[in-house]
Specification:
The protein is mainly α. The protein folds into three domains: 82 residues, no CATH class; 41 residues, no CATH class; 28 residues. The protein is built from five helices and no strands. α1 crosses α2 and α2 packs antiparallel against α3.
Length: 189
């Protein structure tokens, strides 16, 4: 069995740290409990990065020959980049938290406006009906009916062109006898 060096690659090691981080985050930010997969991904990446930083701190960024430890430094860089993106997704840095707050506020205003607009529309329709005015024209229905008719006509024309049928009757039309090779013509026997 290989010795555990950093623990950053061992789920048995980083898993426990990840669970602690996720639980702490959800305790501090209960709104994030609705996104368990995102929280778990963030916690796993943060745990691995913390363990990798600890490993590099203990062994140093260069080996005994003075060469950089490229593999561990590269992996730490990738973990840090991933953690940065995940923090932003969850709103864990000031800029992304402010952006998410703005987006939530805009969405709540829009939802309120849509509800108020729907209420005003229903009230207007009811007032129109109570006044004995005719119902408003069904513009969507007119457009849909026109497009349906156009589609049906186009389909019939294409069917006639492709299959040589008279639109709607299923009759096969005879090809013209032009005497060219490859044309289907009847010959008298």
């Amino acid at each position: 069995m290989a010795a555990v060096k950093s623990g950053a690659r061992s789920p048995r090691v980083y898993g426990e740290l990840s669970e602690l981080l996720a639980a702490g985050l959800v305790e501090d930010r209960p709104d994030l409990a609705a996104y368990p997969e995102a929280v778990a991904a963030w916690a796993t990446t943060e745990a691995q990065a913390a363990l990798m930083r600890r490993h590099i701190d203990s062994v140093g960024p260069v080996d005994e020959h003075g060469q950089p430890r490229d593999s561990v430094l590269s992996w730490l860089t990738k973990l840090e980049a991933s953690a940065l993106k995940q923090r932003a997704t969850l709103g864990l840095d000031p800029r992304s938290e402010a952006k998410l707050a703005r987006e939530r506020a805009a969405a709540s205003v829009l939802a309120v406006d849509l509800t108020a607009l729907a209420d005003r529309g229903r009230a207007a329709l009811q007032a129109r009906e109570e006044a004995g005015l005719p119902a408003p024209p069904d513009l969507a229905g007119r457009v849909l009916e026109g497009k349906t008719s156009e589609y049906t006509a186009e389909r019939a024309a294409l069917t006639a062109e492709v299959y040589g049928t008279t639109a709607g009757r299923g009759e096969v039309s005879e090809p013209a006898d032009s005497g060219e090779v490859g044309n289907a013509t009847r010959t008298e026997q």
